[in-house]
Amino acid sequence: MGTPDSVAPHSHPAKPDLLAEDLIGTWLLDELCLSRQRRSVRPRCRGTLLYTSSGHFSATIHVSSRRMPQVGKSLGYTGTYTVERGVVTHHALVATWPFGAGSRQLRWAALIPGDASADLLRLSGDPERPVQFLLTWHRVAHAG
Question: Which domains does the chain have, with CATH numbers?
Fold first, then answer.
């Protein structure tokens, strides 16, 4: 099963040579799509993802959907990150379920450059797993 389709294709192609510095900044969650056996769920949720120039990240997601009680209301994890060949690896130092402290979370990444701060970041899990997810984030403009 491949990565789930979440939103209509963007007018700009994904950046093929993703670097760690391309991720630096604050991202807000636009959509979470979960797929299993050709069935998709898009729960209502909010989230923030931060990548720093020192190689640290922090992610928090709050799910407000009754259709997904197994996920819980909030999840979060923080630690360091690396980028290699379009895969972002989150090395968790502190984490809630379903992640564990000390775990490595691989995210297949596509950065879709936009105008000014309208970049989109799509992160998905291992395409070989039975349950797929796709998180679509947008970059927040710098304050000030």
Answer: 20-139 (2.40.128.280)
How far is it, in rounded angstroms, from Cα 52 to Cα 36? 33
Quote the longest CA-to-CA distance of the chain: 46
The model's pTM = 0.81
Q: What is the pLDDT of residues 97-111, one digit of tens each?
A: 767 889 999 999 999
Q: What is the three-class DSSP state of 13? A: coil
- Contacts of residue 139, defined as CB under 8 A and 6 or more positions apart, other chains included, come to 25, 26, 27, 117, 118, 119, 120, 121
Q: Which two tokens stand for residue 36?
A: 């299993």
Given the DSSP bridges, would you call strands 45-51 and 39-41 parallel, antiparallel or unpaired? unpaired
Write the pLDDT tens digit of every residue in 5-49: 433 333 445 677 899 999 999 999 999 998 887 788 888 899 999
